[in-house]
């Protein structure tokens, strides 16, 4: 009975969110944001403990699994181990793995809450006071574009969303790290999928590969005449293909938020859109695209998060 009431409440929340003009955005908000919000409301402490630990462990173990499978099994069989491509493949794997883990760690360590501001910035100047808003939970005025997070229990500067992998909110100060984290996750999984597909095409009948990637096409097995791959390899390629989707979707959301200078909660709002170049710099800082090299590269942001220049 309790579960039915709870399920009904989630359906009602979802249906109240969906608008006809942008169903893709609304449905995704429902699935990724609304449900997380409802669960967080339900039991915040439990949500923190279980979701954060499980998500981080899943990410670390998945990364380790793909790195080891690629380095020890797939790449040595696809490329000549004494050739340039093999060495390039190994170097690329190390670089991507470093950037996934280092950007995730930097995103987790960087405080983007309102309390990260110097104390003299916590109150608005008389001319900016009308732009600040009152937060009922924090019971004080907060800078424009800051939103309260029920899991972090504070207001976040230019809050995008609460990330269960980094166990904190993504906002003004750490969006750079989250952007590169999703980019390198997507790139790493795409490359490992590409390598595994080449390996399977070289050694096994391609009908088997299609049925592993898309189990609905199981009838294609009848047409296969060559050797079949071991089940563990088939499961690996299937897991790789489906696990690629979440970081790819998050990366696409990041691209849209850079394109319009907005956040996931408010993708339709482009009133802060300053042009692609300025939008990108407002997230990654003065070094721009060079920040792809490492999260350790210093790249100061154009402002502290209390000023939000609007489109003229
Ligand atoms: Zn607040
Ligand atoms: Zn949060």
Question: Mind explaining what this structure looks like?
Answer:
With 312 residues, the chain is mostly helical. It has one domain. It is built from 9 helices and 6 strands. The protein has a two-stranded antiparallel ribbon. A two-stranded antiparallel ribbon has the order 3-4. The protein has a two-stranded antiparallel ribbon with strand order 5-6. A hairpin with a 4-residue loop joins strand 3 and strand 4. The radius of gyration is 23 Å and the shape is globular. The termini are far apart. The relative contact order is 0.10. One zinc ion binds next to strand 4. The site of one zinc ion (ZN) has 7 residues, from strand 4.
Q: Tally the helices.
A: 9
> Per DSSP, what share of the residues sits in E-state strands of 2 or more residues?
5-15%
Order of helices and strands: HHHHEEEEEEHHHHH
Indicate the overall shape: globular
- What's the structural domain tally? 1
**Beta-strand segment tally:** 6
Unreliable parts: none
Task: Tell me the radius of gyration.
Answer: 23 Å
Structural class: mainly alpha
**Helical percentage:** 55-70%
**Main β sheet profile:** 2 strands, antiparallel
The hetero compounds bound to this protein are: zinc ion
Strand order of the largest sheet: 1-2
End-to-end separation in angstroms reads 54 Å
Question: Could you tell me the mean pLDDT?
Answer: 82
């Amino acid at each position: 009975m309790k579960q039915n009431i709870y399920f009904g409440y989630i359906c009602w929340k979802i249906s109240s969110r969906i608008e006809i003009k942008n169903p893709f955005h609304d449905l995704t908000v429902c699935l990724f944001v609304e449900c997380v919000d409802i669960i967080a409301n339900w039991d915040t402490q439990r949500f923190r403990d279980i979701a954060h630990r499980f998500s981080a462990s899943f990410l670390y173990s998945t990364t380790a699994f793909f790195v080891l499978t690629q380095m020890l099994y797939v790449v040595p069989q696809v490329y000549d181990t004494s050739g340039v491509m093999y060495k390039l493949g190994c170097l690329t794997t190390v670089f991507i793995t470093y950037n996934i883990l280092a950007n995730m760690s930097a995103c987790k360590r960087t405080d983007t809450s309102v309390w990260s501001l110097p104390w003299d910035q916590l109150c608005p100047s008389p001319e900016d006071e009308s732009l600040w808003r009152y937060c009922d939970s924090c019971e004080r005025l907060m800078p424009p574009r800051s939103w309260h997070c029920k899991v972090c229990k504070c207001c976040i500067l230019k809050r995008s969303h609460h990330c269960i992998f980094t166990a904190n909110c993504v906002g003004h100060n750490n969006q750079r790290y989250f952007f590169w984290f999703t980019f390198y996750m997507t790139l790493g999984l795409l490359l490992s999928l590409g390598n595994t597909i080449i390996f399977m095409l070289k050694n096994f009948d391609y009908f088997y590969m299609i049925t592993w990637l898309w189990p609905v096409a199981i009838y294609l097995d009848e047409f296969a005449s060559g050797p079949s791959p071991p089940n563990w390899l088939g499961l690996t390629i299937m897991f790789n293909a489906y696990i690629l989707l979440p970081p790819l979707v998050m990366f696409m959301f990041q691209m849209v938020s850079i394109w319009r200078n907005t956040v996931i909660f408010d993708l339709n709002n482009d009133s802060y859109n300053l042009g692609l170049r300025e939008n990108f710099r407002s997230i990654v800082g003065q070094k721009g695209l060079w920040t792809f090299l490492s999260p350790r590269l210093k790249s100061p942001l154009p402002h502290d998060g209390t000023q939000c220049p609007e489109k003229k």
